[in-house]
Amino acid sequence: MNHWLLRPLMLVLLWLQLLLLGLMSLGWNLIAMVLYPLLPRQRGLEIGRAGISRGYGLFWKIANASGLLRMNAAALDPLRDEPGLIVVANHPSMLDALMLVAHLPRSACVMKASLARNPFLGTGARLARYIRNDSPLGMVRQAVADLKAGGQLVLFPEGTRTTRRPINPFRPGFTVIAKMAGAPIQTVIIDTRSPYLGKGWPLWRLPPLPIEFSVRLGRRFEPAEDPAAQLRQIEAYIAQELGGPSPAP
Questions:
Q1: What is the pLDDT of residue 5?
Q2: SS3 for 167?
Q3: In a 3-state reduction of DSSP, which class is residue 235?
Q4: Domain 3-241 fold
Q5: Is 211 left (phi over 0), alpha (psi -120 to 50) or beta?
Q6: Cis upstream peptide for 119 (omega within 30°)
Q7: Smallest Cα–Cα separation from 87: which of 139, 157, 26, 179?
Q8: Secondary structure (3-state) at 153
Q9: Which residue ranges make up each domain of the chain?
Q10: Which residue in 130, 144, 194, 248 could disulfide with 181, CB within 3.0 to 4.6 Å?
Q11: CA 236 to CA 238: how far, in whole Å?
Q12: Model confidence over 180-222: pLDDT tens digits?
């Protein structure tokens, strides 16, 4: 097939996969809308998180089979049943949370409060009792309570997708949560050479194919008495693992 025909076909196939992801998300939110008022809190949490995790897992199986999107996150599997764990990763793409949550069915993410209140897009997150960012103090309290109850917390301390290499300066909070909850911090390194769905990359633009992501476990940090110092320590460590200097604060 001619190269000028192949690229548009690959782009359409990529869009179809993302459309499938959107339809799966909408379908699960409609199911969650029914389940949310019916299930007890803990049961809803378990079903909600498992449902999101399996949905993302199915998406990645389809994506891997297509050959356009390849994700290797098997390194996360030993963590899937570990209670009271904070998972901290760099954030090169919009797809990062999908990779981590697909392998961590106990995990919760921090999400915008406005999205959680959306009746069509937020019901799945409400059923799973994801952490809302209404206020910093409220977010910390919710996260600590969830970790003490045996949950996991997935965080991207850069706050947004990476805009300066190797990472953006970390935002405070996760080391405070670790200290208050007595929870270890497991660093995770996401490696990719693809710019797709990174900051500033438009959805319609076809990147070099295949789009590949690889996830590896980094060092684990126990809670520290000085959260601010530990934040900078972890920031420097992840920057080093990605092959660059620690960002200036």
A1: 63
A2: coil
A3: helix
A4: Glycerol-3-phosphate (1)-acyltransferase (3.40.1130)
A5: beta
A6: no
A7: 157
A8: strand
A9: 3-241
A10: 144
A11: 6
A12: 999 999 999 999 998 888 988 887 788 888 899 999 999 999 9
